[in-house]
């Protein structure tokens, strides 16, 4: 499911991560021809996606992925 706003995607992704951090996978894909970034967070049951071409979201994406990776690795230990 594509979420329309960054805040919706971020909140839903964190909620998915909190349910079971060991099953969550995150991917990011850049499409040069469209100048868009596609983010996907899934646990094989739910699949959250967000697509943006807004350059201002790049910093938000960087912080988001750093936070999510920190959460995943700290919960697995």
Structure description:
The structure is a single chain. This protein is α+β, with helices and mostly antiparallel strands and 77 residues long. It is built from two helices and three strands, in the order αβββα. The protein has a three-stranded antiparallel beta sheet, covered by helices on one side. The longest helix has 20 residues, at 57-76. The relative contact order is 0.23. The mean pLDDT is 88.
Order of adjacent strands in the largest pleated sheet: 1-2-3
Number of helices: 2
Shape: globular
> Residue-averaged pLDDT, rounded?
88
Short description:
The protein is an alpha+beta fold. Helix content is 44%, strand content 26%. The model has no long low-confidence stretch (mean pLDDT 88).
Write the layout of secondary structure elements.
Elements: H1 6-19, E1 25-31, E2 36-42, E3 47-52, H2 57-76
Antiparallel strand pairs: 1-2, 2-3
Helix pairs in contact: 1-2
